């Protein structure tokens, strides 16, 4: 297998693993509480990655100590908030809805970069953001503007949007890190910080809300998939592929995630994909193309 084909295979598997994350969270939403699922997922990840990444963490620690607030925010937004908010969201919305909204992350990044990094939006980018925003509204309303009133009572989509915002903000703030912080050291640091953030919420969910995690086959299989496939292997595959073909070419494979997710949701959960859903996805991707001038390219 040549280098390009191997990279494309790794990226395709990464998109599949990430799509499975949201489908699985929806599948077990009635039996595994959301914060508990996130906490045990990242605890399992920590068991594997902390010993592996500890040397890099130690080497980068002096630099990290110079930006303690930024490191705390990055750990909170990524490990602490992103997936947890998605898991809360899919308690009351479908995996299809969550995956369609996730595809808007690049647009949120475009929107957040100007105020945080001082790079103004060009007219083309502004138009692209507006088109993608129309797609998000179409997904939220399921094609009916009157549905917006029900969002107050069925706020799953809003929780997912909060997760989308948290990951976009994390992605933008990464650019503020000093050179020398990254890779395994950063990954281990964010996992540890994120777990510390999640712990009080996990305890509150368990004891105050009386929603304990039951250690059964469902939990073990769920945590194993989320830790091994959606976290560790996805991280390794993504980094390997980016190193082989570059971040720009790798980035277009993110658009496979909603495609895989829609298929998995229909096959495994019996969820319906409406014309409004497909129209919303088309607008989100069209807006991204207008803003960046790029569409996903097929491999030869």
Automatic annotation (TrEMBL):
Superkingdom of this protein's organism: Bacteria
Listed GO CC annotations: membrane
Chief localisation class: membrane
Transmembrane segments: 35-57, 69-90, 96-114, 126-145, 151-173, 185-203, 215-238, 250-269, 275-295
Subcellular location: Membrane
Membrane disposition: Multi-pass membrane protein
Keyword set includes Metal-binding: no
Residues covered by the EamA domain: 7-140, 156-291
Keywords of the record: Membrane, Transmembrane, Transmembrane helix
Keyword Glycoprotein in record: no
Segment forming the signal sequence: none
Pfam families attached to this UniProt entry: EamA (PF00892)
Homology family: Belongs to the EamA transporter family.
Protein name per UniProt: EamA domain-containing protein
Record organism: Acidihalobacter prosperus
């Amino acid at each position: 297998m040549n280098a390009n084909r191997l990279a494309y295979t790794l990226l395709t598997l990464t998109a599949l693993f990430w799509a499975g994350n949201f489908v699985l969270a929806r599948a077990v939403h009635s039996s595994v509480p959301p914060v508990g699922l996130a906490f045990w997922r990242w605890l399992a990840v920590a068991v594997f990655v902390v010993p592996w990444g500890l040397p890099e963490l130690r080497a980068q620690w002096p630099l990290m100590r110079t930006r303690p607030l930024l490191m705390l925010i990055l750990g909170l937004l990524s490990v602490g908030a992103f997936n947890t908010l998605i898991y809360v969201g899919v308690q009351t919305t479908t995996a299809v809805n969550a995956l369609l909204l996730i595809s808007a992350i690049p647009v949120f990044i475009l929107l957040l970069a100007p105020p945080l990094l001082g790079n103004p939006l060009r007219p083309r980018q502004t138009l692209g953001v507006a088109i993608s925003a129309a797609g998000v509204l179409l997904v939220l309303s399921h094609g009916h503007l009157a549905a917006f009133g029900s969002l107050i009572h069925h706020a799953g989509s809003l929780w997912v949007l909060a997760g989308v915002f948290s990951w976009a903000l994390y992605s933008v703030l990464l650019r503020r890190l000093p050179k020398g912080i990254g890779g395994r050291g950063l990954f281990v640091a964010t996992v540890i910080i994120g777990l510390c953030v999640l712990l009080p919420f996990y305890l509150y969910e368990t004891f105050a809300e009386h929603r304990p995690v039951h250690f059964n086959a469902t939990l073990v299989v769920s945590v194993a998939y989320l830790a091994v496939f959606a976290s560790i292997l996805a991280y390794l595959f993504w980094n390997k592929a980016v190193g082989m073909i570059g971040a720009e070419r790798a980035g277009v494979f993110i658009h496979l995630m909603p495609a895989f997710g829609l298929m998995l949701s229909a096959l495994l959960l019996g969820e319906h994909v409406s014309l409004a859903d497909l129209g919303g996805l088309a607008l989100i991707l069209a807006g991204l193309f207008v803003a960046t001038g790029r569409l996903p390219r097929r491999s030869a």
